[in-house]
Amino acid sequence: MAKRAIEHLFTGLTTAYTAYDDAKTNLGVLIQQRTGAAASDKFAGPMPLALARPMESSVAIASAYPHVISWDSDNDWIFLAENSTAAATRRIVKYNYEKSTGIFTWNGYITLTFPTATVHTVRGFRMNRELYTTGTAAVSGTAVTGTTTAWNSSNLPVGCRIGFGSADPTAITTWYEISAIGSDTSITLTASAGTVVDGPYVIEDLRVLISTSNATTTNGGLFVAKGLREEIFAPGGTTIAAATTTDGLRAVYWLADAATVTNTIACGLATDTKDSWTQHHIYIIDGTTTTCRVYKYNIRATLGSLSSGKSTSAWVLTTGAQTPTGTASQANNGRLDTLSHGPGSGDKSIYFVTTTRVYRAEVAGITSGNTAWQTDAMVEIPPGGANTYAATSVLSSCEIAGQIDRLIVISTGAAGVRSYVTKYNTNSDPFDHIFLVDSKQLDQSTSDANGVIHPTINATALSVWSEGGIAYVCRNGTTAALNQLYAIPLSAHWTYAGSSPYQRLITPSLATPNASSLTRVYVNAARQLGSLTMGLPPEPFRVYYRVSGIDDDSGEWTLLDDTGSFTDNTPSSEIQLMFEFKTIGSFCIPARIYGVTVVYEDNTTDSHYQPSVAQSSISSKIFAWRFSTAFGGTVPTLRIRLYNAATGGILLDDVTNAEPEDALGTFEKSTNDGGAWSSYDTTDKANETTYIRYTPTSLADNIKVRALLTQD
Amino acid sequence: MIHLEKNQAVTGDAGLVVASSTGDYEDNDLVECYSTGTSGAVGASYQAQYVKYGNLVYQYNDPVELGKEILKVDPKSTHTAASYVRMTEELLAKMNNGSLEPASLETALSTEQDAMEERRAEPQEETVSDKPSEPEPEPEPEAPAVEIPPPAADVSSTTPAVIEVLEEATSTPALEAPADAATTTDEIVSLITKKIRKKLLS
CA of A91: which chain B residue's CA is closest? Predict the structure, then answer.
């Protein structure tokens, strides 16, 4: 039995796990195989961290509160709201993030001119994108004619873009801007689209939703910028006018709750899904303590009685005040979604935080005047309890990581306090994970290039949006040193990797021909990224194996411990390895696996022994081996098989631990070069003159024999 | 302070012109505009500084940087940031050549004020009022372009004489954010005075 090794480097063919193929490396949604010029560029693992620096773009804009819209499977649009000193205008920044390359591209910005010229502070920010594809459309020049369309009554604004030939926006090659919507079946374009026969089309209605507080308090509230299109987020900027008296234009509208606004202490902004083209509700938590209530608006309502861009038509209701425990933050606080666990399982709810609690408010309970709209709350109990990590008592916002059905609970970062990922529970269970750390490293472009970017807290508030399993985390500083945006493959975390969508790295089937036992797995992975001085270690990973059910992905996985030793070394002709990764950690730097090697023994002579001619005897029918390599412990049971070398037929099969009555021969051992032979024992190799030999009780004469010594 | 003429084209958007009355506006004042293709119906409000200088005014966080950029395109600009830079440079020049005197600040201020008066008197270049194809916009009966908006006096659609600095007026933000581009003339004077005093005392 000889020691063999099968090596796999992550440079071969890959496939998405959803198209499982045992001949390729299988990748979970957030797992990638990267390549590059250097050997260290060729690795597999969760997508590496990516970084953008809003304060170092060509127009520096301090940014916060990311909102992400997935454009296609490889590209996300990331929008950020301006977070600099309060002013009468606010800018909205757009990046594109390409997942396959990990590159953020700064597209540009728009400037919102509010209908009130007093200074605004952004408290809540969302983008809203809806696709209108009903009916068909034909074009002649700039005139678009619809069939079974309802463009006008769907409150689509001027300024949006329209594409023809497909209802799938990613299939549109040329977009056109809408300059007028004359009726339900008539649209005018700003430029000719030539002639397009009646067919599918898509209108992309893109809006900014923003809640602000204002230096003049009654000038705050909810503002909506309608009629946007992706292209106007340009490096030179595009300024969006304040609306005046006409609805449905590219302008910023003030969706007031009353002639004199009372929604003056906005904490954030939570959006529901669109009910129809004339009804789409959003919610604003207002008031941080005793006046805490919820305002409900319909952002798709027709805005009547517009004056100076202000209308009260969108306001739906306001709850009564209900005092929460702690103080509600005003940092993009509030997220509406339906979790699939906990007390809110299956119930559409708004989750928001106070300094010491995570609150849940069922949407069904957001009714006019209701003073019991807060459904329940979860106390901040860090993992391990407050004796392990002190509660921060400065919770700042929460986000829902839908892919793993968990809340991301962010603190203010004051004095470096950390943040959490957790289930929602009301039974005083500790939060599930604590993550991020304050390393004090600055990730500005002038930082040492040998450092490793990571979302350190730096005693600064963070804001986060989770989309497709990626957590887009923004450090909300207002300087080049402290304002960065990170993409973290958070939902690839090993706790959740085995649930759909799978987030594992699986090797192809690795051949182990004639294997008689499995020995060990060796993994080559990055131990540290960056230089010796500036470097940081990646987060850990776990390795699993299976030797059956490989072709159809049905086999159970067995976890290997850190020694890489197989607990069950029953071999097969193939083996497959699987990796799970920790991504919710201190630095959140994903591991990088370069290669993996499986060592096993095959059915040739065991690698610890060498056939010895000198100590063997043809006449006495003795078969001897020199003990060449120590086992490092007790010698395992050995097995000898004698074959007829001419026919291949087996003549004898015996083991070292056979009962006397079952033994077919005698094993012996010498530690003095064959000078003296004693009974066989399982003591490891003693010296270079250690031999073992086997004498069969009976063996026919005049045959040619091949002896095979293996582990049993 | 920005001087705008009724029917003046909005910089960077040839299809838009000013609907509000001719006059001087604070940089952040909202000015009503209409599209030349919409028979004068007011459809948008922009800040006076944007109407005058376009997107340039939103590309800088530092008022000094903004002022310098504005002066490149309009050396006689009366935009607050431009005035600040011009006065600062004038005073620094005097200080560097040894001619700075206690009265220099007053001189610089009066020079700026004179410049503003001159700009007001100068004919505006970009208006569409003389274009025969563009009729004089008719104010909308329900929302006259020159009507003082109800309680929220945040939209400056009147002549400067009407623009009193009320509690909600555009000077408020500058007081809260002295480093912002919305800095008022009073603050500029204060800033310059502090700087000069510091220099003189050192």
Answer: B58
